[in-house]
Design brief:
Layout: H1 35-39, E1 47-53, E2 62-66, E3 69-76, E4 79-84, E5 104-106, E6 112-115, E7 121-124, E8 144-147, E9 150-155, E10 177-187, H2 190-198, H3 202-206, E11 221-229, E12 232-241, E13 243-246, E14 250-253, H4 275-280, E15 286-289, E16 293-297, E17 302-311, E18 314-323, H5 327-359, H6 372-383, E19 410-411, E20 417-418, H7 422-425, E21 443-448, E22 452-453
Antiparallel strand pairs: 1-9, 2-3, 3-4, 5-6, 6-7, 8-9, 10-18, 10-21, 11-12, 12-15, 13-14, 15-16, 16-17, 17-18, 19-20, 21-22
Helix pairs in contact: 2-5
The structure holds FE2/S2 (inorganic) cluster (FES) and fe (ii) ion.
């Protein structure tokens, strides 16, 4: 194990650098220390992203947006295909099209017909059998894989493509397990969602009203450092405090007579730990990795959540709860997931996070000691040599002209340009926690070693 980013906490060195002496709310830190991260409104290229549940993709085209790109998913026999959702002719979404011939989709406007496998234009219904444009262009296709019951697409340059397994936690590929999950599109930029997930300070306060934590005491404050191990950045608690004694104000605590305590400060320290989780030898509960995946490990479960950029203002939030068990223990978990976890944890608890991600507005920001979790994550992103995703300039009519080059110019109604990135942080305020899309049916899956759904599931 290499602890390369142990971050000592020094009250005089606040995360993100020195603060202005002014106390004005409007004087704060910007994200200038992390220019790559600041530019990554639409996420990072050259990663695999989970974008849909496998079984939800049917022969009816399914449109969605990932990292700002319009994608259409279509099931074609045993295969699932992903294409750029835009007909090069006049820019109509192919997801509105029809399935006229096997293995193809026809644009609804003039019947340009594309091969689902390679995206080539193979026929034009309204231009006769000798249409000279046939074979001369096509739409871009996306590499696609199916793991954990999810559809993954590679967003980036084909030359940079790596196996999907590189972007999936190893423990989910090397073991059998049962999982429950749900996915929805929520308000807020993906970076706010990722930062919220790894945010050291929030859970103890924001979530102390969550039913999921009703019977467990949570700490009031911790002393925390960060540890890097393999692909993960891990929060490690050096000191756990169950109450905050604030001079002149009084004492605040999460302790209540009906709550048990304490939780161990690392999953492996519990008396009874699942062997797979124990084998991970995690020094802390919570870890994060690129391109935006959080892991919260408990002694018997692990919760994972992916923050998949949709556009500047929305994020696809994919959450799964995993238990590394087979047989009756797996079946019992299924009942527990459907009866409790999906409502309490994947519903109300993470709904509180959705609320904050929706209403927050930064930068500017004024960071405090626990925010080393946030600055540590930004630092990981900053130094990883990542390629920032940017929207293509308005497609020029060439097939698949999706090269990431320039942000399109956006103007207000009075003609003034809106600077790129503005929409990532210009948030409207709302008062109630709400997910953007209606929660979907919970997905229960048994997964075999290698990440494939077990037969018959
Ligand atoms: Fe697609 Fe004309 S816009 S066929
Ligand atoms: Fe949270």
């Amino acid at each position: 194990m290499t602890d390369t980013t142990s971050a000592p906490i020094n009250p005089d060195e606040l995360p993100g650098g020195p603060l202005s002496a002014a106390s004005d709310d409007f004087v704060g830190q910007d994200w200038g220390s992390w220019p790559t991260y600041e530019a990554a409104t639409l996420g990072f290229r050259n990663f695999w992203y989970p974008i849909a549940w496998e079984h939800q993709v049917t022969s009816k085209p399914m449109p969605l947006t990932v990292c700002g790109e319009q994608v259409v998913l279509i099931r074609d026999g045993d295969e699932i295909r992903a294409l750029h959702d835009r007909c090069p002719h006049r820019g109509v979404p192919l997801s509105l099209g029809r399935r006229e011939f096997p293995g193809t989709i026809s644009c609804p406007y003039h019947g340009w017909t594309y091969d689902l496998e390679d995206g080539k234009l193979v026929g034009v219904v309204t231009d006769g059998p000798d249409s000279p444009i046939c074979g001369r262009l096509g739409v871009r296709t996306y590499a696609l894989e199916r793991r954990l019951g999810l559809v993954w697409v590679f967003i980036g340059d084909p030359a940079e493509m790596h196996p999907v397994e590189d972007d999936i936690p190893r423990e989910l590929l090397e073991n059998d397990f049962v999982m429950g999950g749900r996915s929805d599109v929520r308000e807020g930029n993906w970076r706010f969602a990722a930062e919220n997930g790894f945010d050291e300070g929030h859970a103890k306060y924001l979530h102390n009203t969550a039913l999921w934590r009703m019977f467990k005491v949570m700490p009031a404050w911790n002393r925390t450092r960060l540890v890097e191990r393999d692909e993960w950045l891990i929060r490690v608690q050096d000191e756990v405090n169950w109450e905050t004694k604030i001079p002149g104000l009084g004492t605040w605590t999460n302790k209540r007579w009906w709550r048990t305590m304490p939780l161990p400060d690392a999953p492996g320290k519990a008396a009874d730990v699942n062997p797979v989780i124990k084998g991970l030898d995690l020094p802390g509960f919570v870890s994060i990795r690129l391109p935006g995946l959080l892991r919260v490990a408990y002694p018997h479960y692990i919760h994972y959540e992916w923050y998949v950029p949709v556009d500047a203002d929305t994020v696809r939030y994919v959450q799964i709860m995993v238990r590394f068990e087979k047989g009756w223990k797996a079946a019992r978990f299924g009942a527990l997931y459907l009866g409790a976890i999906r409502w309490l944890f994947h519903g109300q608890f993470t709904g509180q996070d959705a609320w904050m991600v929706d209403v927050m507005d930064a930068p500017p920001e004024r960071l405090y000691r626990p925010d080393i979790s946030i600055t540590g994550w930004r630092r990981v992103c900053e130094r990883a040599g990542l390629v920032v995703q940017k929207l293509a300039a308005r497609p020029d009519g060439n097939p698949g002209s999706m090269a990431a080059t320039n942000l399109p110019e956006v103007r207000k109604s009075d003609g003034t340009p809106i600077p790129p990135g503005f929409r990532a942080t210009g948030k409207r305020a709302t008062a109630a926690p709400a997910a953007t899309s209606a929660p979907e049916e919970p997905q229960l899956r048994r997964i075999r070693r290698g990440g494939r759904v077990a037969d018959g599931e």
